Amino acid sequence: MPPAMGQPINVVEKPSSTPGLARFEINRSLTGMGHERYASVEDILDDRPVDELARRLFASGGVTQVQANGSVIIVHLADGWTGAQLLDVIRGLYIYYPPSGNGEAAGTAAAAEPEAAEPAASEPPASESEAGEPAVSESDTDAATAPESVTDRETAVEASEAPEAAAEPVPAGVAEEDPQE
């Protein structure tokens, strides 16, 4: 499985003197010098990183309001929620293709068919044919039966220094006899 892409945000939850509020400081500014307030999901009108973070925090179900100013995020927690439960939501804002629960990257499906990496038991090994001779691939067969041009033959004869190369070229499709056999 490929690793998740992106860069996690470093998040530190700071103590808050007000019950029901969680204050987070992160290692990057989401709003610049501006202050963003979201009382509900309907208040999110844009697609900036701070807007996406607010969407994700509301989608977690543990947040009733979100405020962000620079690198500080303050959330109003729903009953029974703590700030520690939201750390991963903030940390994963810039993570793309995060791992899903089943060990795969989110958005990808497992292959429905098994891989055909191994030949079936009834097939001969790819390295030898049934007669025990080396197997010939399709590309070898195509090259052996493909007609050569006269220029290619002449070039091959001129380039070769062996005395056998000066012999009459054999027409395509006719097998040459090997003198070593």
Main attributes of the structure:
181 residues, alpha+beta, 5-stranded antiparallel beta sheet, two-stranded antiparallel sheet, 4 helices, 17% strand, elongated
What would your notes on this structure say?
This protein is of the alpha+beta class. It is built from four helices and seven strands, in the order E-E-E-E-H-E-E-H-E-H-H. The protein has helices at 49-59, 87-91, 138-145, 150-159, and strands spanning 5-6, 11-14, 21-26, 35-38, 63-69, 72-77, 95-96. The strands form two sheets. The chain has a five-stranded antiparallel sheet. Strand 2 and strand 3 (21-26) form a beta hairpin. 12% of the residues are buried.
Q: Give the SSE order as H and E letters.
A: EEEEHEEHEHH
**Cα distance spanning the termini:** 53 Å
**What's the shape?**
elongated
Largest sheet: 5 strands, antiparallel
**Overall mean confidence score, pLDDT:** 74
* Separate helix tally: 4
The whole-angstrom Rg is 34 Å
Class based on secondary structure composition and strand pairing? alpha+beta
Count the E strands: 7
Sheet-strand content, in percent, reads 15-25%
* Poorly predicted runs: 104-122
Order of strands across the main sheet? 2-3-6-5-4
Query: What is the share of helical residues?
Result: 10-25%
In short:
The protein is built from four helices and seven strands, in the order ββββαββαβαα.
Task: Spell out the blueprint of helices and strands.
Blueprint: E1 5-6, E2 11-14, E3 21-26, E4 35-38, H1 49-59, E5 63-69, E6 72-77, H2 87-91, E7 95-96, H3 138-145, H4 150-159
Antiparallel strand pairs: 1-7, 2-3, 3-6, 4-5, 5-6
